[in-house]
Design goal:
Number of strands: 7
CATH architecture: 3-Layer(aba) Sandwich
Helix content: 25-40%
CATH class: Alpha Beta
Radius of gyration: 13 Å
Number of domains: 1
Strand order of the largest sheet: 1-2-3-4-7-6-5
CATH topology: Protein Transport Mog1p, Chain A
Largest sheet: 7 strands, antiparallel
Strand content: 35-45%
Order of helices and strands: HEHEEEEEEH
Number of helices: 3
Structural class: alpha+beta
Distance between the termini: 26 Å
Length: 139
Amino acid sequence: MTQDVVAGHVRALTAAHLFDVQSTDQHTVKPWFLGKLDFSPPVADFAAQGYALAGGRLDYLGERGVMALVYRRHAHVINLFVWPQATEADSGVRSDSRQGYNVAHFSRAGMAFWAVSDLNPEEFKAFVGLVRDQVASAR
């Protein structure tokens, strides 16, 4: 799945198709997905922490439609792919790097979360921590 996530990130960057909905407002981005996907995960903006929501798009990974939320940190793009998983089990964060991109994934509250970016490892880890904490507090 790591390779699929990196490929989805690169495809969005090279095809200049980062957004189906471009907005910094989570109350615009989340409702845009209604009726387009069969799930509704949390959407948060972390602009106050330096990771601004920029929008979202539909994407396909592992033969299923997924939510791709797009964040920006300075000139860097972070794609956060989200989809439901079969179990409610929570997992710790697993990190990897592939083709010069940092990749991290975890599961929480019945959802799989995969983040990918060329951010430096420290800033990337901080972003993943924000997402994980936000999902935990939304429960």
